[in-house]
Amino acid sequence: MLVAVTENGRFVQANELTVQAKTKLYHCPACKGAVRLKMGEVNLPYFAHVNLIECDSFAEGESAGHLTGKLAIRDYFHAQGAVVTLEQYFSEVQQRADVLVELNGGRFVIEYQCAPISVQKVIHRTAGYRQLGLRVIWVLGDTYQARQLSRATWAKFSQILHGELQLCVWRMQPGCFEWLSWMEQDFTHRQKQHVVKTKLAEIQLLKLQQQITRKDPYLQRIVLELYRLQRRLVGMPWMVHNIIGLPGGVKGEAWPVKLMLYLAIESGPKTQTQLLKQLANCEWQKFGVASVRQVQALWLNRMLTQWFEAGEIVVNDGQISLTTAPNWYADYQEKLAGLNIAPENNEKTSKK
Length: 352
Fold this sequence. Notes:
With 352 residues, the protein is of the alpha+beta class. The protein has 11 helices and 16 strands.
């Protein structure tokens, strides 16, 4: 920990003390247990408990990267004229904030995350800060940035900002925050927005055909339902493919969810509320900061906007319906032959 309390009740920061302070006794702000200053030639100064008593609010063995990051974030906000408090302890919820920032009349918390943490703890800590009326921003450090983030990790830390699911990271060089948008295209690595849409469509169609051939149980249920409607899965309209990209959050690929909503609209006009209820029956990632309902509403709004801008749907008196008769293809080859029209039109329309 970077902050401790002196015998006379004054808060001090480890990096502001001299080597002579190593002989003095300090106290943990949370559990009030005795701590001592640790100071060497390599690692940053920090406080550690004299006895390893149970203290949930302050972790022993905090990494140098975590300590360095908190100090860098403090300096970043100091440069903006903010009042910054490191390791502020809130006794009401028994939580310690990595960084508390007071700026432009508002207060918010930065949780700088370098070590693994469960989504349950993220939910709990976020709820604690909200109980105090504080917004919390979870910021990922170098350890997370060094690897490909899983969908579960994106969901754990993302929040809705400016109409998008975004995740915040702290770049030690050049010393600034960066917000990353969580957008996904089916059968690709996340955020590869530069993929040529016609090429991506070919990949998606091939992968879909391969999945059907493997007789995946989940897909077989969809195949049987479409067979009842005298439809073929591989022949579903191009607008059902997730080519342009949608916010993350759905478990697995997005096209089965889009297909479900398309079939709902095809059967008759639907309101956005009715479609949202259908989304609640799908499998979603476990979110730590954003609520799944908010994510579902964001996801649906983005999908409907894409369809509307592409001229695929119309809205009359709150009722959503297809613009033209459904365009289902007879087989793989017929659908592939129609590729030169649908994806290119969608790409042009999306740039308007």
